[in-house]
Amino acid sequence: MNLADIFKKIVLVAKQEGLAEPYLVGGALRDMIRGVEPKDYDITCGNKDSVSLGHAVCSAFGTTAHKMHSGSLKTIIDGFEFDFSPHFIYEDKFQDSLKNETASRDFTINTLLMRLSNGEIIDFFGAIGDIKEQRLVWCCTPDADPVRRLRAIKFIADGFVPDEQNLKLLIDNFDISSVPTRQVRQIINSAIRKNP
């Protein structure tokens, strides 16, 4: 089964289960635009519904669900890794809520959404332009989450360039002491692999 067929079946499962509409979000879309094969595919359809959808999809495909520490649900379908993320909340004002939730992500390059039902791309923050021009732009100040500073290093190693203002945000008060050593090692090793 190819990826398009899997997407269609995910949409069908969401409808059958009475769940909110599913979207592909973030890194996979960034990589597709760059011509890079995504390592995984993040699916969201709402804070609670996305995990429920993950369980329903696993049942429909006969795959195993793996609950992650973050609260997301991972599974592998015909060699494709899927992550059903609970981090996006749909409120009454659907578009406003979706925009607010994508704004909470780390960089504009990770804010793209694709409606699985018809392939429509939603770009609230100029992500496509930033991806094509390889610009690294913060969605919000990274102070609240030092992991975002580390992720910036990974993206810089991958060819994305922060402007002077965004570079200053990265460097000022650079403190990752609260980040678990395992996570620091993982991100740094990823950056090194891109630039051996």
Write structural notes for this entry.
The protein is an alpha+beta fold. It is 43% helix and 14% strand. The chain contains 8 helices and 9 strands. The strands form 2 sheets. A 7-stranded mixed beta sheet has the order 3-4-5-2-1-6-7. The longest helix is centred in the first third of the chain and has 14 residues, at 3-16. It is globular, with a radius of gyration of 17 Å. Residues 89-96 have low confidence and may be disordered.
Q: Quickly give the structural class.
A: alpha+beta
Please tally the β strands and state the result.
9
Could you name the ranges where pLDDT drops below 50 across 5 or more consecutive residues?
A: 89-96
Radius of gyration: 17 Å
Residues in β-strands, percent: 5-15%
What share of residues is helical?
40-55%
Order of helices and strands: HEHEHEEEHEEHEHEHH
What overall form do the CA principal axes indicate?
A: globular
- Quote the average pLDDT: 82
Helical run tally = 8
Q: Gap between N and C termini, in Å?
A: 35 Å
Walk across the major sheet and give the strand order.
Answer: 3-4-5-2-1-6-7
Q: Strand count, sense and closure of the main sheet?
A: 7 strands, mixed
